[in-house]
Design goal:
single chain; 197 residues; alpha/beta; Pyruvate-ferredoxin Oxidoreductase, domain 3; 6-stranded mixed sheet; globular
Length: 197
């Protein structure tokens, strides 16, 4: 029996967390896993916190991932990485888009954006894979493809072959955006393969 694993995709509204979870779900179902997904919105339309839970195994009862249970966390932004860090397993991996997106209280001046977030995450012993996914997305042709860059990074850390991920992209991405997203995926995957060996 295959071990049940949990993945969390965390970001802010408008960053494409839903597409990322659909691509991931497509890969996992294609590999014969029972997959459960659940999306929790803050004020997603206004840049609020959004988290998607993805759990997979031979038989999965609930999509929810508890604290200390996530094998992977894909964090689309620094503050969201810090917010959800306690959910990462001891040997889990945190994939971070090293980008700062100010939440509403920071924008309105009610609070300040915390300093040294990445250093604080590292000091807690997290297995951190940090990348500038925004720069790679822009190089691919669109800032909105940060989500697919991060999926590309994740793909290099899993046992699932690259062609399964390519098929998932083809199934989940609109044809007019497919080439751009394939580029973004390739940038993320190559970054991980070069930097994590």
């Amino acid at each position: 029996m295959r071990e049940t694993k949990g993945i969390m995709i965390v970001g802010v509204g408008g960053q494409g967390t839903l597409l990322a979870s659909r691509i991931l779900g497509h890969v996992l179902m294609g590999e014969g896993y029972d997959v459960k997904m659940s999306e929790v919105h803050g004020m997603s339309q206004r840049g609020g916190s959004v988290v998607t839970y993805v759990k997979y195994g031979d038989r999965v009862a609930s999509p929810l991932v508890d604290e200390g249970e996530a094998d992977y966390i894909l964090a689309f932004e620094r503050l969201e990485a810090a917010r959800w860090l306690s959910y990462l397993k001891k040997d889990g991996k945190l994939i971070l888009n090293d980008q700062r997106i100010s939440p509403m209280p920071v924008i309105t001046g009610a609070m300040e954006y915390p300093e040294n977030i990445v250093e604080k995450i590292e000091s807690r012993g997290a297995n951190l894979i940090s990348c500038d996914a925004l720069a790679m997305a822009l190089e691919a042709g669109n800032a909105k493809s940060v989500n697919v860059v991060l999926i590309g990074v994740l793909s290099a850390l899993t046992e699932f072959p690259e062609d399964i991920w390519q098929k998932a992209l083809e199934a989940c991405v609109k044809p007019k955006f497919l080439e751009l997203n394939k580029k973004a995926f390739a940038f993320g995957r190559d970054y991980a393969l070069k930097n994590l060996k």
